[in-house]
Description:
By secondary structure, the protein is mainly α. 53% of the residues lie in helices and 5% in strands. It has nine helices and three strands; from the N terminus they run H-H-H-E-E-E-H-H-H-H-H-H. Strand 2 (59-62) and strand 3 (71-74) form a beta hairpin. Helix 1 packs antiparallel against helix 2 and helix 2 (26-38) crosses helix 6. It is globular and about 55 Å long.
Amino acid sequence: MVEKLPDYLNREEVEQILETASRHSFRDYLMIKIMWMCGLRVSEVSNLMARDIDFLEKKIKIVQSKRSKDRYVPVTSELLREIRFYMEAKKIETGYLFISRKKRKITTRRIQQIVKRYAEEAKIKKRVTCHTFRHSFAVYFLKKTKNLRALQKILGHSSIKSTEVYLNLTFDDIQEEYERVWER
């Protein structure tokens, strides 16, 4: 039996949410952008430490993610510039990357509330959770690269079976591919 493709956002919907968040809080914008561009779980964003950002190698170390396996995810130069700007503005050299007003690590629950707020404010009609950004990243990455193994590594899936769910296409995706085959 083929698993249903998880709910995901298209790039325009993600950009609407990011734009909405950017009007309120650079921290919130950056947390959402990292979930979207790196495919991180909400707990991984909450647990990010300043030392996990490798500006030279352009990667983020995800420490003790699911099943206690560390992994690295690549990061674009643009996203690294935004992370550096944020760290400099907030004077973050050590400790957690994202902190609350009380100077504590931001909780996963708070991140979930933030995501819900901005999705509603951006008038996104779909149900949007933190995990929706992970699914959106996976779908977008796979559509662009067609590289299931790379996606498996980035997401930290131990089994390719977990990653294969993203191979299921919507009818719109199939129609788009079909038309591309017959373009002149």
